[in-house]
């Protein structure tokens, strides 16, 4: 299974970059002045490095030689796939923090907090899943949530007839600590989501660009101007 990837996105900045002339974006990437606009990283989290995103943006530009550099990305006549790809890059540029996790572990961290069981890992790509999880998480503190995750993990092991004795399995304590750390950071991540003008970017390793979304709207659909 692949990692599900979540990012907290500064939507004001994302909208600004989406409407900026492509030439201004490329100039900002090449002379590194676009870094001034990047939001402050949330303490305790990681996100894509500027240099990596800058390289990816320039590669995207090279793949699309017919761009009208005087117009914004949202006005470009490009394929939906290329539109989604630059949307992902801009969203990651506007990210305040990233949280990622192996899909299998999300059944432990997320499913018990949902009103209904998860039928398959693709449900972790749905905004409704994360919105429901966030609502539940808002009513419990970080310590209680993390403890519930660890206790659930222990119960699942016992139901499978596996030992909880560290002397029999030296991986138990490191795994327990990993679950504790991951669940605590997930709680903090969603607590930060409640900030004004912060949106949730949802994707997955190896996922088609067209299937990445922000707040339940596919990026390919957000990267066009609605004239209605």
Explain what this protein looks like in three dimensions.
With 228 residues, this protein is an alpha+beta fold. The chain has one domain. The chain has helices at residues 11-18, 22-30, 50-63, 80-93, 103-109, 127-137, 142-159, 172-193, 219-222; strands spanning 3-10, 95-102, 198-204, 213-214, 217-218. The protein has a five-stranded antiparallel sheet, with helices on both faces. It is elongated, with a radius of gyration of 20 Å.
Summarize the structure.
The chain has 228 residues and is an alpha+beta fold. The chain contains nine helices and five strands, in the order βααααβααααβββα. The mean pLDDT is 93.
Pick out its properties.
5-stranded antiparallel sheet; alpha+beta
Number of strands: 5
Order of helices and strands: EHHHHEHHHHEEEH
The largest sheet, given as strand count, sense and whether it forms a barrel, is:
5 strands, antiparallel
**Helix segment count?**
9
What characteristic shape results from the CA principal axes?
elongated
Number of domains: 1
Radius of gyration (Å)? 20 Å
Low-confidence stretches: none
Strand content: 5-15%
Structural class: alpha+beta
Instruction: Report the helical percentage.
Output: 40-55%
Mean pLDDT: 93
Order of strands in the sheet with the most strands? 2-1-3-4-5
Cα-to-Cα separation, first versus last residue? 41 Å
């Amino acid at each position: 299974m692949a990692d599900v990837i979540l990012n907290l996105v500064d939507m004001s900045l994302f909208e600004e970059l989406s409407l900026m002339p492509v030439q201004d974006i490329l100039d900002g990437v090449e002379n590194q002045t676009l870094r001034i606009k990047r939001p402050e990283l949330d303490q305790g989290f990681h996100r894509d490095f500027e240099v990596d995103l800058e390289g990816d943006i320039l590669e995207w530009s090279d793949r699309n030689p017919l761009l009208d550099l005087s117009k914004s990305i949202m006005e470009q006549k490009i394929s939906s796939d290329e539109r989604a790809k630059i949307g992902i890059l801009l969203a990651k540029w506007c990210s305040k923090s990233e949280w990622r996790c192996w899909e299998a572990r999300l059944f432990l961290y997320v499913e018990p907090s949902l009103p209904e069981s998860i039928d398959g890992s693709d449900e972790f790509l749905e905004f409704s899943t994360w919105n429901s999880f966030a609502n539940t998480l808002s009513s419990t503190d970080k310590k209680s949530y993390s403890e519930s995750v660890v206790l659930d993990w222990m119960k699942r092991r016992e139901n499978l007839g596996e030992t909880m004795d560290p002397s029999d399995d030296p991986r138990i304590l490191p795994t327990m600590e990993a679950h504790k750390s991951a669940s605590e950071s997930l709680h903090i991540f969603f607590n930060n989501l409640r900030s004004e003008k912060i949106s949730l970017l949802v994707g997955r390793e190896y996922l088609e660009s067209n299937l990445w979304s922000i707040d339940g709207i596919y990026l390919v659909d957000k990267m066009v101007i609605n004239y209605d």
